[in-house]
Write a structure and sequence with these properties.
The chain has 571 residues and is α/β, with parallel strands linked by helices. The protein has 12 helices and 26 strands. Helix 1 runs antiparallel to helix 2 and helix 5 packs across helix 6. Bound molecules: alpha-L-arabinofuranose. Alpha-L-arabinofuranose binds next to loops.
C-alpha cells in the first residue's frame, strides 16, 4: 500500500472516531438532530480527507471536490497521448485444471457437443468475439510437471494431475490441439516450459519440435503428427512460480536456472528471427513483501549486466484477489461488506505494480523488460459439491467491477505492464465462460472483456477527475475509476466504473484538445452486487446500451450504481 493510501486511511480512522463522538453527544439531545448533524459532519470530513488524495491521483489541479455529491467532472486531454495499451493485456490463461481444458475447451471429435476437431464450437465462437490476443498454457503449477512428449502423437500416455484434484490427465489435449485451438480463436501462444521437474534438454527439444523447418527427427515427427509448417511461438514463460509450486527455489537458484534454460530454448522458426522474435518471460514476484522485492531485485540486477548468452524480455507478476487464503470468500450469496472488502483488496494491484516497477526502473530505466501480470483475478471458495482442486467458482457483478478496476490499473501502467493473463479462461477461478455439458454461459467478466475490446492497442489518454469516495463501514474507496484511449482510427473511448453500489453518479466530461459531439456505448450493471448469470438465467448480467447528451462540448452521462460503462466519443 502506498504512503498516500496509508495517510488517507489514518485520516479516515480519525474522522470515524470524531463522527462516533459527535454521534454519542447528539444522541443525548434528540434523534432528529443526530441524523442530520452526523450526515453533514460525515460529508464535510469525507471531502477534507478525500480531496488531497484525489488530486495526487489525477496529477491535475482540481477546483471543487465531488465527494458526497452526485456529480463528477472529468477532463480528458486528447492532446497528450500516453503509452500504447498493449492488446496482450487482455490475455487469457488455460491450465490443465478442473474443467478448464477438458470439457471447457476440449470435448473430443466424437462428442455430441458440436465441435471442430474436438474444440467446442460455442466456446470458440464466444472467445473469438473477445479478440483474445494470447493464451498462456499448459499452466500454472501444472506446467512445471508437464512433459510435452506425452501429449503428441497417436498414442497418448495417461498420467496424473497431482496439483489439481489428483485426477487422471489423458493428455488428449496436447501441443497440436493447443495450437489448433489458438488458430480457431485467433490468438497467439504463450507457452510455459517445465523448469521444475523437466530439463533444459526437454524444453529445448519442445522448441525444436515446434519451430524447426529442417528435416530433423523432431521436425519430421511434427510433420508426421499433422503440422509440416513450423509453429509460431511468440511468448515463452521460463518456469512458473519457481518460488513455490514450481520448485521452492531461492531467487539465486532460480536465476541460475533461468540463465541455463534461456541459453538453450531456441526458436528456429525463420519468420521469428528478426522482427517477431520470441519473447522470454522470467518468473517474477508473487506479492509485495520483502521476499518478493528481493526476487525482483535479484533478477533485474543480473539482467542489467547480462552477457550475450542469455536475455529476457519480461518479468512475471502473480497476484490474486483474496482477502483470507485460509477462509476464502464465497463467490455468490454475499453482501455489500464482502463486495467492499474484495474491491479494496483488488485495488492493491496498483501499489504492487508501482513497487515492482520502481525496482525495475532502477536497472531498466528504458523499460525494455515488460512486467507481465500473467496470473490475476478473484479466488473464492470452491463451489459447494465441487472438487476443491478444480477451483470452480461463480462469477458475479462484483467480478465485473473487479476486472474493470484491474484492466484500468494495467492501462495506467501501460509503459511497463505490457501483458496480463486473467486466471482462468473457462470454468476455473475468474472465468470468462462456464460450461455444463452442452450448455455454456457467459460471465459478467466476459462482458467486461468484450466491452474493453476497443482498448486493445489503443493509445492511453490522460483523464483528470475527482474520484469521490465510496464509504462502507471502515472501508473507503475511490468511488469512480476511469481511463480513456484513442484507437487507431482516432476514435476516443472512455471507460468509467462507479463502484458505489448505492448511488448513481452524473459525469460531466470535457475534452481538452478536441470537442465532443456525441457519445454512445454500453453499461453493465445488475440489481445486486452478487447478481450472476446461471445456466437457467443466462442474461441476468448483460450490457445495455447507454447514451450521453452533449451540450456546448460538455458530455453528460449518468452512471448506475455498481456499473462498468464504456462509451465511444464522437469528436
Ligand atoms: O491459477 C491457479 C494456480 O495459481 C496456478 O497453477 C499457480 O501458478 C498459481 O498458484
Amino acid at each position: 500500500m502506498s504512503g498516500k493510501s496509508v495517510s488517507i486511511h489514518n485520516c479516515w480512522r480519525r474522522q470515524l472516531l470524531a463522527v462516533r463522538a459527535i454521534r454519542a453527544l447528539a444522541a443525548v439531545f434528540s434523534r432528529f438532530l443526530f441524523v442530520g448533524f452526523t450526515r453533514v459532519t460525515r460529508h464535510a470530513l469525507l471531502v477534507l480527507c478525500a480531496l488531497p488524495f484525489n488530486l495526487a491521483l489525477t496529477g491535475m489541479a482540481q477546483t471543487a471536490p465531488a465527494s458526497g455529491t452526485d456529480k463528477i467532472n472529468l477532463s480528458i486531454d486528447v492532446s497528450k497521448p500516453g503509452a500504447k495499451i498493449d492488446r496482450n493485456l487482455f490475455g487469457q490463461f488455460a491450465e490443465h485444471l478442473g474443467h478448464g481444458v477438458y470439457e471447457g475447451i476440449w470435448v473430443g471429435p466424437d462428442s455430441n457437443i458440436p465441435n471442430t476437431r474436438g474444440m467446442r464450437n460455442d466456446v470458440v465462437a464466444a472467445l473469438k468475439a473477445l479478440k483474445v490476443p494470447n493464451v498462456r498454457w499448459p499452466g500454472g503449477c501444472f506446467a512445471d510437471e508437464y512433459h510435452w512428449r506425452k501429449g503428441v502423437g497417436p498414442q497418448r500416455a495417461v498420467t496424473l494431475n497431482p496439483n489439481w484434484g489428483g485426477v487422471v490427465e489423458p493428455n488428449t489435449f496436447g501441443t497440436h490441439e493447443f495450437m489448433d485451438f489458438l488458430d480457431q480463436i485467433g490468438a497467439e501462444a504463450y507457452l510455459s516450459i517445465n523448469l521444475g521437474s523437466g530439463t533444459p534438454q526437454e524444453a529445448a527439444e519442445w522448441l525444436e519440435y515446434l519451430t524447426t523447418t529442417q528435416p530433423t527427427t523432431l521436425g519430421k515427427e511434427r510433420a508426421a503428427n499433422g503440422h509440416p509448417a513450423p509453429y509460431k511461438i511468440p511468448y515463452l514463460g521460463i518456469g512458473n512460480e519457481s518460488w513455490d509450486c514450481g520448485g521452492n527455489m531461492t531467487p539465486d537458484y532460480y536465476l541460475a536456472q533461468l540463465k541455463i534454460y534461456n541459453r538453450f530454448v531456441r526458436n528456429f522458426n525463420p519468420a521469428q528471427q528478426d522482427k517477431q522474435q520470441m519473447l522470454k518471460i522470467a518468473v517474477g514476484p508473487g506479492g509485495g513483501e520483502a521476499r518478493w522485492t528481493e526476487w525482483t531485485d535479484t533478477i533485474m540486477k543480473a539482467w542489467q549486466k547480462h552477457q550475450w548468452s542469455w536475455d529476457m524480455n519480461g518479468l512475471s507478476l502473480h497476484n490474486y484477489t483474496v482477502v483470507h487464503w485460509d477462509k476464502k470468500f464465497a463467490s455468490v450469496g454475499f453482501g455489500e461488506t464482502e463486495y467492499g472488502q474484495i474491491l479494496k483488496n483488488t485495488l492493491e494491484m496498483e501499489g504492487l505494480i508501482s513497487k515492482h516497477s520502481a525496482i525495475m526502473d532502477r536497472y531498466d530505466p528504458q523499460k525494455k523488460i515488460a512486467l507481465v501480470v500473467d496470473e490475476w483475478g478473484s479466488w473464492y471458495a470452491p463451489l459447494p459439491g465441487s472438487n476443491p482442486g478444480f477451483l470452480a467458482q461463480q462469477n458475479s457483478l462484483r467480478d465485473a467491477v473487479l476486472a474493470a478496476l484491474n484492466l484500468n490499473i494495467f492501462a495506467r501502467h501501460a509503459d511497463r505492464v505490457r501483458m496480463a493473463n486473467i486466471a482462468q479462461m473457462i470454468n476455473v477461478l475468474q472465468a470468462m465462460i462456464l460450461t455444463d455439458k452442452e450448455t455454456m454461459v457467459l460471465t459478467p467478466t466476459y462482458h467486461v472483456y468484450k466491452m474493453y475490446v476497443p482498448f486493445q492497442d489503443a493509445t492511453f489518454v490522460p483523464v483528470a477527475f475527482n474520484a469521490g469516495a465510496y464509504v462502507h463501514g471502515d472501508i473507503s474507496l475511490h468511488r469512480v475509476h476511469a481511463i480513456a484511449a484513442k484507437d487507431a482510427t482516432g476514435r476516443l473511448w472512455l471507460e468509467i466504473t462507479n463502484l458505489d453500489p448505492n448511488r448513481s453518479v452524473e459525469i460531466e466530461a470535457t475534452l481538452a484538445g478536441s470537442t465532443a459531439k456525441s457519445a454512445v456505448g454500453e453499461t453493465l450493471t445488475a440489481p445486486k452486487v452478487d447478481s450472476v448469470n446461471t445456466f437457467a438465467a443466462q442474461n441476468a448480467v448483460v450490457p445495455k446500451p447507454v447514451s450521453a447528451t452533449v451540450q456546448g462540448g460538455k458530455l453528460t452521462l449518468k452512471l448506475e450504481p455498481k456499473s462498468v460503462t464504456v462509451v465511444s466519443v464522437e469528436q
